[in-house]
Amino acid sequence: MAARPPISRPAPHPLPPEQQREFELLQRQVEAVANAPPGRVERHPDAPIPLTAEFDGDINPATGERGGPKREPVQRWIEEEGDWSFKGRVSDF
Q1: Which DSSP helix (H) or strand (E) runs through 48?
Q2: Distance from CA of residue 1 to its chain's centroid?
Q3: Are the C-beta atoms of residues 75 and 85 closer than 8 Å to each other?
Q4: Measured distance between the N- and C-terminal CA atoms of the chain, rounded to whole angstroms
Q5: φ, ψ for residue 53 (rounded to 5)?
Q6: Nearest 5 degrees, angle CA 90-CA 68-CA 83?
Q7: CB of 67 closer than 8 Å to CB of 58
Q8: For residue 1, pLDDT beyond 70
Q9: Taken in order 61, 65, 68, 73, is the CA torsion positive or negative?
Q10: pLDDT of amino acid 16
Q11: 3-state SS, residue 25
């Protein structure tokens, strides 16, 4: 029986050598982070800083609310604009 010709399928165009090296380097970095033990994962420099809780426990000491958010979601009132701002996002209720 004769050997079959290889299957011809659509594929992306090959990258230039410099971009291929960069692509493979980025893939190795992602795999290293994915395989890192818990607690040793480093944050990406562009990742936003996680918010910290304003209190410990389940009860908000200021409001007495149980099981609510650990910090006030809206923090700053912009008087001249009449909007609430939080982490650079503005809401107009």
Answers
A1: none
A2: 54
A3: yes
A4: 75
A5: -70, 145
A6: 15
A7: yes
A8: no
A9: negative
A10: 94
A11: helix
